[in-house]
Amino acid sequence: MSDVQVAANNGVNVEALLGAREALTEAPEAAKFVWRAESEWKGGTHTQSNVEGFFGLGEEQNHVREFSYDTDHPEIFASEDKGSTPVEFVLVGLAGCLTAGIAAVAQNRNIQLNSVKATIEAPMDIQGILGIDGDVRNGFDSITVKYDIDADATEEEIAALVAQSQKRSAVFDIITNPTNVNVEVNK
Amino acid sequence: MIARFLDRVRFAGTTDVVVIGAGHSGLAASYFLNEQSIDHVVLERGEVANSWRNERWDSLKLLTPNWQSRLPGFSYSGNDPDGFMSMPEVIDFIEDYAKFSGAPVRTRTTVLSVSKASDGYRVVTDKGTWKTKAVVLASGACNTASVPKVAKLVPSHVAQLTPQDYRNPGQVEEGGVLVVGASASGLQLADELQRAGHDVTIAAGEHVRIPRTYRGHDIQFWMERTGIMNERYDEVDDIVRARGLPSPQLVGSHEPGLLDLNYLAGNGAKVVGRLMGVNNGVAQFSGSLRNIAALADLKMNRLLDAIDEWVLRNSVLCDAPQRFDATGIDESPALTLDLDGRNIRTVVWATGYRPDYGWLDVPVLDRKGRLKHDGGVVDAPGMYVLGLPMMRRRKSSFIYGIEDDARELMSHLASYLHRPNRCDDQYEVGQNPAHVNVAA
């Protein structure tokens, strides 16, 4: 093997991200994004939600295509199970956000990732949503994410990737910190 | 009223340089200006070392050991080099330096405004107006305690204090205290209040955890010897982040060896996440505490690794390496705290400080109110600043760190004054002396 250090390639364009960071520092208005989803009830507890457009860099933007997601509840809730539960979608969002962050931070630190797998568990006492016990909250008791990471790095460097990813994660922030939520009915 | 108005408009004098502030920074600037025989005056709103006299709590000691108390041409001469100065000792030290350096200090002279004038600046004070070619801002980095907006939502029966108002536990009503912030100020006040018998909850955002001593030497010894404190502002990856780092969890004392969240929790404090909001009298804390603690532990270990590597490379004889326990976080740290109940009587905002440039009528602040400067050369011809965190080097905001900065910047200032045809319109964007190379 040669002793020339090979640049890591995790498929993340860090130059573009760093370029965006620099550009948006100069033009903070362009950093204001709006994310959107639309949903429609399909019957029972089944809802279909679609994502396509969003606002950013000062103008309307689009994904390369429309993405569609089904949420429902499992048969043990007497539902038809046409999709994952909405609470599982929250876990999907967290996994996607943290793992993307790990890849980006690893690229920036020139660490080659070979595999990144996560299992997420979130206990919930459904006495809350069923209104059985008012002292039990509706949401998760807690969330535990466990990563198995194979990378060309030390244990400490991997721990630092995971820590930095949490620090910069939007979904981690959304879940760990309060957000004002406004739900209105159009007239 | 009219007399005071007349005082302001009265002409106080013409000089080459007005230095604003007679703390260690302003006095160090004066030392180098004297060395080059540059005519100047040092304006001080109160007495020499004013903020050390009036804006610090009683038990505070310097975070750097006495041997490190050095100013240009001057150093600590007492018999306790490993001790830490109390506030009266710091005041004496800086007063002695003012006498030693013969700085032309005008005390009890408050600067009311600094504005552009032909060939320099107009500095209006409550004792008259100065006309000057150059200005050195040495008014400090900690003029105002920063308090987050959420403070307005704290119920009115709960007292609120900042480290600037706080003097001693006698001021704090019996009962629970929420300390917001886990840097040096937050930890020291939490520890002091806990010892005084208060139930303390400490809300910890991002923090810097370091031990007081390592391998038989003060941490400041290692930070200085390894060159970490000499790291330059134009060499670090992310200067905005480096400048915004909270002060490390240190106390000017050998006990405890590690004033950290583990120590406070061991004495009974409740450690919670960063304060994110107050909703109907209930404080809400971030659920990210575990990661915040992990980040601080990782960073501390990286620093200790760097010291160990340096020791190995330089074959230094010292104690064996050591690693400290990871920060222990409860399985489910509290996410809320009821401020409306009887439990919490006081909130202490140890959430940092910022400089006050309210009197600066020159457009040199960015959209976040930070001074625009390149290593202390302010974005206005003939204007300089000293003493800000990571201004030219990691040590810039330390007493011993002022010497290199002041020497370089006052030499830059001298060449600015001696520049032929120096006048305002000489400096278009890009020609501003801020972009002229400063001797390293």
How would you describe this protein?
The complex is a heterodimer of chains A (187) and B (440). Chain A contains four helices and five strands; from the N terminus they run H-E-E-E-H-E-E-H-H. With 187 residues, chain A is an alpha+beta fold. Chain A has two domains: 1-31 and 85-177, GMP Synthetase, Chain A, domain 3, CATH 3.30.300; 35-84. The N and C termini of chain A lie far apart (69 Å). In chain A, the strands form two sheets. A three-stranded antiparallel β-sheet of chain A has the order 1-2-3, with no helix packed on it. Chain A has a two-stranded antiparallel sheet with strand order 4-5. Chain B folds into two domains: 2-143 and 355-435, 3-Layer(bba) Sandwich (FAD/NAD(P)-binding domain); 146-353, FAD/NAD(P)-binding domain (3-Layer(bba) Sandwich). Chain B has ten helices and 23 strands. Chain B has helices spanning 2-9, 24-35, 50-54, 87-101, 184-195, 219-225, 239-244, 261-266, 289-313, 402-418; strands at 11-20, 40-43, 70-71, 74-75, 105-106, 111-117, 120-125, 128-137, 144-145, 159-161, 176-180, 200-204, 213-214, 217-218, 270-273, 275-279, 282-285, 336-338, 344-349, 353-354, 373-374, 377-378, 383-385. In chain B, strands 1, 2, 5, 6, 7, 8 and 23 form a seven-stranded mixed β-sheet that branches. A five-stranded parallel β-sheet of chain B has the order 10-19-11-12-15. In chain B, strands 16-17-18 form a three-stranded antiparallel β-sheet, with no helix packed on it. In chain B, strand 13 and strand 14 (217-218) form a beta hairpin. In chain B, helix 2 packs parallel to helix 4 (87-101). Chain B starts with a helix and ends in a 22-residue tail after the last helix. The model of chain B is unreliable at 424-440 (pLDDT under 50). Classes of the chains: A alpha+beta (187), B alpha/beta (440). The A-B interface holds A 28, 142, 156, 159-160, 163-164, 166-167, 172-173, 175-178 and B 273, 276-277, 279, 284, 286-288, 291, 294-295, 298, 301-302, 332, 367.
